[in-house]
């Protein structure tokens, strides 16, 4: 008899659907010529990443019994995918899909002034160039006079 937690089958279906979307964005990795331990599947690594992000469990405490591999393996895979732009491309693909289906609503969107470019750009006042007679590293006329 297999015990299934409420909603577990739906959750697994969502994870499988997400992996089907992310899989084409991943680059193929060749097995090492040196041999070694078999590589954890990308799907299992993704499920481990989602588990840690959803539960807040530290990477080092990811239970191996769940079949997601070591927490550090999942963390490295997430880091490598970030460096390869996988998450950004997935985000753009999902936005395009929502936009195409007419489900992207900007009715409650806001813009942060720290990100938006200002309407009028002020140019800073020009600074005086340090005189050639001042010693290198002198910060004031008193210091420059003391060095002379």
Give the assembly state of these chains: single chain
- Whole-number radius of gyration? 27 Å
Number of strands: 0
**Which structural class do you get from the secondary structure elements?**
mainly alpha
Mean pLDDT: 80
Q: Helix segment count?
A: 5
Give the low-pLDDT segments.
none
- Shape estimate: extended
Task: Provide the helix percentage.
Answer: 40-55%
How do the helices and strands follow one another from N- to C-terminus? HHHHH
Organism: Ottowia testudinis
Pfam families: DUF4096
Protein name: Transposase
InterPro entries: IS402-like_dom (IPR025161), Transposase_6_like (IPR052909)
Q: What would you note in describing this structure?
A:
This protein is mainly alpha-helical. 43% of the residues lie in helices and 0% in strands.
List keywords for this structure.
148 residues, mainly alpha, 5 helices, 43% helix
Topology, element by element:
Elements (H helix, E strand, L loop, with lengths): L7 H15 L19 H14 L15 H13 L2 H15 L40 H7 L1
Helix pairs in contact: 2-3
């Amino acid at each position: 008899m297999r015990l299934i937690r409420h909603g577990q089958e739906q959750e697994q279906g969502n994870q499988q659907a997400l992996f089907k979307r992310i899989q084409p964005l991943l680059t193929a990795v060749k097995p090492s010529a040196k041999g070694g331990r078999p590589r954890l599947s990308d799907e299992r690594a993704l499920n481990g990443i989602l588990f840690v992000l959803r539960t807040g469990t530290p990477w080092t405490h990811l239970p191996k019994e769940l079949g997601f591999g070591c927490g550090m393996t999942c963390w490295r895979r997430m880091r490598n995918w970030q460096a390869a732009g996988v998450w950004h491309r997935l985000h753009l693909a999902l936005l395009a899909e929502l936009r195409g289906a007419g489900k992207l609503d900007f009715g409650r969107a806001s813009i942060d002034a720290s990100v938006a470019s200002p309407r009028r750009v002020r140019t800073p006042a020009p600074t005086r160039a340090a005189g050639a007679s001042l010693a290198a590293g002198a910060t004031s006329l008193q210091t420059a006079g003391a060095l002379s």
